[in-house]
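Translate structure to sequence.
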């Protein structure tokens, strides 16, 4: 079905657009007849031309320019123009016959027969022009479809990149957690058991949000807190956390598990190498349309370099770039015995996603 016929408003606007054409045709016909007769003849002819012109849509779709030979195109459209012109002249003949019965427009049929060659030429021009317009519309439609397909492909590639990054992240965290449980099992079985329970709760929560493209910062902070609870079973009072988040920032959207690798990095490469431990500071604020997250922790300058120390930060940076190209960034710096990670991304709200019981 023609796109114009799908909605009544489109059809109404299309028919209104033919009113000037009907007026122009009436002016041409008025040279041999009165104005009222010309108008009464032109209106049905214009209405018939409007609907007959729509018929070339199917023909143009079935005969695309890039896949059809010139001979086939000419033959098909010549036949369509001839058929449409015949119907158009038939409508005009019926209209003129009806007018001929009225004494005020007597002789209308004879005058119409005189104008048949002129009307055939006008009709052929109109229907040929309709075919050209339809080919232009089809070209625009194909262009839009190609753009949509390219966008869908780009989104699919981006999602695949995010899934690959998450696949790297999860084994990395599990490896460290299981090592911590194994270390606790020998000297403190009860602490190891509690850590197993907390790990199970954390994994259950992350599984529920892992398929989400974005979650609220409030939920992400809860996940980070759950992770830190697991690590606190290992480090005890050496691991301290201070969170300072403004209320308006908690509703902002962030990628799920964005903070977890950053606080993990703070624990593994900061707190773990400090004899007295230290405090991990997590701050977040929304300002000027941007959400800023900051994670700082103490770090010993002479600490040993751990394998994969930059994996979590690199993954977080890549995820941000994939989600917000050119609009998000992650900067990591070290100075004066403190390691600082600053994340900036567009601030916008997202619906809450239940992530389970974290008691």
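Result:
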């Amino acid at each position: 079905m023609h796109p114009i016929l799908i909605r009544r408003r489109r059809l109404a606007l299309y028919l209104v657009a033919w009113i000037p054409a009907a007026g122009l045709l009436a002016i041409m016909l008025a040279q041999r007849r009165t104005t009222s007769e010309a108008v009464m003849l032109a209106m049905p002819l214009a209405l018939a031309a409007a609907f007959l012109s729509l018929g070339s849509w199917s023909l143009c779709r079935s005969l695309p320019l890039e896949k059809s030979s010139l001979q086939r195109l000419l033959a098909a459209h010549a036949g369509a123009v001839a058929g449409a012109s015949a119907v158009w002249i038939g409508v005009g003949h019926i209209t003129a016959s009806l007018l001929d019965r009225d004494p005020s427009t007597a002789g209308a049929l004879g005058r119409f027969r005189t104008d048949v060659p002129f009307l055939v030429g006008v009709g052929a021009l109109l229907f040929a022009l309709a075919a050209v317009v339809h080919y232009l519309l089809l070209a625009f439609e194909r262009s839009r479809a190609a753009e949509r397909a390219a966008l869908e492909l780009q989104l699919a590639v981006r999602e695949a990149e995010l899934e690959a990054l998450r696949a790297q992240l999860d084994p990395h965290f599990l490896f460290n957690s299981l090592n911590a449980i194994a270390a606790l099992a020998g000297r403190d079985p009860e602490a190891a058991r509690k850590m197993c329970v907390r790990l199970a709760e954390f994994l259950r929560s992350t599984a529920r949000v892992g398929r989400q493209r974005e979650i609220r910062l409030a939920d992400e902070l809860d996940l980070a807190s759950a992770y830190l609870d697991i690590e606190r079973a290992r480090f005890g009072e050496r691991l301290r956390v201070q969170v300072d988040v403004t209320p308006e920032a908690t509703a902002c959207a962030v990628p799920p598990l964005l903070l977890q690798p950053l606080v993990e990095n703070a624990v593994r490469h900061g707190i773990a190498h400090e004899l007295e431990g230290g405090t991990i500071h997590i701050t977040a604020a929304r300002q000027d349309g941007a959400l800023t997250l900051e994670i700082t922790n103490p770090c010993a300058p002479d600490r040993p370099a751990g394998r994969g120390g930059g994996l979590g930060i690199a993954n977080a940076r890549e995820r941000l770039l994939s989600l917000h190209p050119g609009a998000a960034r992650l900067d990591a710096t070290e100075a004066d015995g403190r390691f600082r990670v600053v994340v900036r991304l567009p601030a916008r709200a997202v619906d809450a996603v239940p992530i389970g019981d974290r008691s």
